[in-house]
Write a structure and sequence with these properties.
This protein has about 110 residues and is mainly alpha-helical. Helices cover about 85% and strands about 0% of the residues. α1 runs antiparallel to α2 and α3 runs antiparallel to α4.
Length: about 110
């Protein structure tokens, strides 16, 4: 259930960004890219980064910068929102989530 909420947040950011950029059928494209972000291997960068590169090479620098900004905004928002939503759906209190994240970080650092 948390992944659907995250997908909704990503869709909202993409929709607003596409409307500001003047993308035709913005909400539909936002839904398709948010669904792509929902899949395990893919993400918003799978669509936004090549699209931005094409626009950059085509000389549309403002549009390319807008796409890059949308990508960064979705990634930052996802990194902030995902632990909260997933932890809430699992029923973990905030302290336990924080402890588990720190423990996992320490555990993975000791392997390197």
């Amino acid at each position: 259930m948390a992944q659907f909420k995250i997908m909704g947040v990503v869709w909202l950011i993409l929709t607003v960004g596409f409307i500001v950029l003047g993308v035709g059928y913005g909400p539909l494209w936002a839904f398709l890219i948010a669904f792509l972000d929902f899949l395990p291997v893919f993400g918003t960068g799978t669509a936004l980064l090549p699209w931005g590169l094409i626009k950059l090479l085509g000389g549309e620098y403002a549009f390319a910068a807008g796409l890059l900004l949308i990508y960064v905004l979705t990634q930052v928002t996802r990194q902030i929102v995902q632990p909260k939503l997933v932890g809430d759906s699992m029923g973990l209190p905030p302290f336990s989530r924080c402890f588990c994240c720190i423990w996992d970080l320490r555990r993975t650092e000791s392997r390197e």
